[in-house]
Design brief:
With 79 residues, the chain is an alpha+beta fold. It is built from two helices and five strands, in the order E-E-E-E-H-E-H.
Amino acid sequence: MLKIRLARAGKRNMPFFRIVLTEHTKASQHGYKEVLGFYNPLTKEFKIKDVEKIKKYLSNWVQFSPRVEKLIKVNNISI
């Protein structure tokens, strides 16, 4: 099953997360299929590159991780 979840990037004490599409059994940092956006917890910046592409994935049985789903609701992004 494919999931849309966070993959950590950045240095120590400077976290930065990519929003990625990956197989749920693989590590999120390795082997992801596509980068869909990013989240910077230091500046609270959250951006999705293409909302239509995410809608297409959701119609094909892809699920959000709980954290990504919460970030989308907090930032009022309609998907």
